[in-house]
User: Fold this.
Amino acid sequence: MTGTTVAAAAVRPPLRAYRAYARISARTVLTYRLNFALGLFGLLFQLLALLSIWGVLLRAGNTVGGFSWPQMKAYLLIAYGTNAIASSFGDMRMGFRIREGLVAIDLTKPVDFQRARFAETSGVAVVELATTAGICALVVGLAGPVSGPAPGQTGLFLLSLLPLLPLKFCTVYLAGLACFWTQNTFGVSLTRVAVTNLFSGALVPLALLPGWLQATAGVLPFASITATPAALYLGTATGTEALRLLAVQLAWAVGLWFGCRLIWRVAVRKLTVHGG
Amino acid sequence: MSVTGPPKTPLEPAREPRTDPSDPRFPQRSWAQRLRRTVRLYRRGLGAHLRAVLEYEADFWLLVGAAVLTQLVGLVFLGAIFSRVPHLAGWQFPEVVLIFAMVVIAEGIGSLLFEGTWRLAWKVNQGELDYLLLRPYPVVLQVMHADVGLNGLGNLVTGGALLGWALWRVDVDWTLARVLLGLVLFVSAITIKVSISLATNATSFWTFSPFSIFAFAMHQVGDLARYPLNVYTLGIRAALTGLVPFAFISYFPAGALLGHGQYAWVGWLTPLVAAYCLGVAWLVFRTGLRRYEGAGA
Amino acid sequence: MAQIEVRGLTKVFRRPEKDPGLVGALKHLVTRRFRDTVAVRGLDLDIEAGEAVAYVGPNGAGKSTTVKLLCGILVPTSGQVRVGGLVPHRDRVANARQIGVLFGQRSQLWWDLPVRESLGLLRDIYDLSPQDYRDQLERLDQVLELGDLLPVVARKLSLGQRMRADLAAALLHRPRIVYLDEPTIGLDIAVKDRVRQLLRGLRADGTTLILTTHDLGDIEDVCQRIVIIDGGRALYDGPLQGVKDTFARERRMHVQLADSGPEHAGVLAQLLPEATVLAGEQPGEFVIQFDRFTLPAGRVIAAVTRHTEVVDLRIDEPGIEDVIRRVYSGELSLADAP
Assistant:
């Protein structure tokens, strides 16, 4: 009797378990609306500042670095949206759980830790997506017309949005994993935000960075978060270049996913052998 | 038998208590001695918490480094813009860096010396102010020195370096008067930053949340003051000047020092704004504390 | 003039009464409804210097509120409080120098600092000379055994350790008046004994003690005066012995007789008509209940031993707990005291 049930338990847990995680995290975020809104505040005010600055520089009709005002508005909205996804302090929460030793409880649950965290992130991402749509509408309404997608690029752009969630999740998750080796969750989170801000092109389009920074960004995964979707949308990358960027994006998403699993195994070994 | 004894006679009105100069409850000190004691005890509290932070947060270098990195990224942004355009809304690169540096330094000093302010909401929520009321030292200072944020060190160093560079590069006639007035403006700006932080956190006396949500939101608003005020629309400019005077931390003092912009003269009002903010913060805190004493935890 | 004088002290808490959620909050802005809770009701009290007073009452009786009012961290709704001639909530800083306070449920130690650092900070805040500080610490160390605690971060202390450290913190500046709100709550008997030893020492020094507690063992060990409060009102204020003499007069003597026959019950009942005789649990064991003022214990023992051989005997007196319990439950009304 026990043989069959044990064997059944060894099989992967059903999708329903992960859907539950997604549902719970979405509901938690909606309950603690205020904290969620605050988390986005930082990004929102950054958007406001950037719109104001670029507005002053571009409103007269000139271009900077090849960006016109409607194009820059589109770029900033894409930057905002791609950064807002999975941004709700996932690493801080994980760091907190690690520090308080609560991870031990998570380890006893019959679900894969990484997939469960991903499910939670996905749940919240739905809410983040909804608020992003609202912000975009607001900006278009107040700041004027925004560039539409470059001709023929819509499909490519939408394709580039697909790896966005796992990619963004992995960067946050990696930062969370770092908390197995350091107590300073705030320091880790701050570093992640700064690095992502810079190398994804969120703060300033990569094309405007000095050469050596652009080169560094080229070998890091962050560019695939903002710069790639933006380039496809605005048509600065077309044809084979566009396909190359998509491939790089996909490669990073997959690579990071499995890289995370590897680091997780090391972290768990450290936890169970040496204690929390 | 009366269980509680005979009815008591009413008390005489309380006399002015300072009748006996040898009463140890009223130590005879000059105001200078009192001020020295207040500052000394504040430093002691900070020092004790700094030691705790350095020991416990073993990876505080990570925190300091992260803060430096964050500000450098902001600097990269400014650098990238100014590599393409000669000026931003009429402000040159060193001048914009000056404004940016002021916000960073103010942030640094706030985190380093007054971080405890952010724990006020938790203390109010948990009723932990009771003991503070029972010590012969101002409650507000006990609250403020209760923590040290080492990211402030990173901000202070970065901001200081940027400020130094900017002051060296800007086109200003440095007379002694100007230098002295610059120092006054600097101290005023820091005062405004700390006052806003205290006042917004003191609203926790009226909310029942253990988190400083309102204060944190206002803090994010302050990020807008990193850039010259005239890039923003009128509404935002008015808010940052009159409502929550973040602009007086960076923009207006810089404008006054550089003699830049049509509102340069407004910058010389910064010390007045600082006094005003300090007064408001003190009033809000004191009223909140009274409310705490009236309502209990 | 007593050291602590309280006249007509009243504290009313006004809490907004609103429906839950956003709708409730908005409604409350329009029609403000409040609920008044009277925590302390017209309290009159005089405490002389050096007295040790116990404050007893059921949960919610207003004990903690009274202590907070006396300390000055709560402002009274009406009435007057004078402590050492000062008005506590008005002369806050001066009052702070003459009192020491311990709230049993909360610690005053700085959470992330070692105990030694917390005590050092307090030394500076209270302007103690290094000599005074060392002397007092040594004195406290003898009873509380602080040595092991000093380097430990407060967060990591066990409850018993934390209480000892908090007591040291409260007494560091040798206050004349000490308020202790539930100082032994949750402690094991070993630590409780230490705390009570300390309190007795304070009494010997002439320190005024005000102690609120649910643990009536604390009272018997330390205080001579007890104030029983309920519903914010003082129901009894007088010597501890008075309460026991008035309401805890009953004694129960358990005797174990050599001969375990049941007929002894009837014989004993006849010999001691003022007592009640019951059968005990074991064969040959009997329980004799009597009022110690109408029937001295000696007479009971003499009567029993004259009648038959006694193998073992013990006398139970009801603790003050029984009295208090019966007062709380309304069984005993103090107003009906003979």
Residues 145 and 157 of chain B are 21 Å apart (CA to CA).
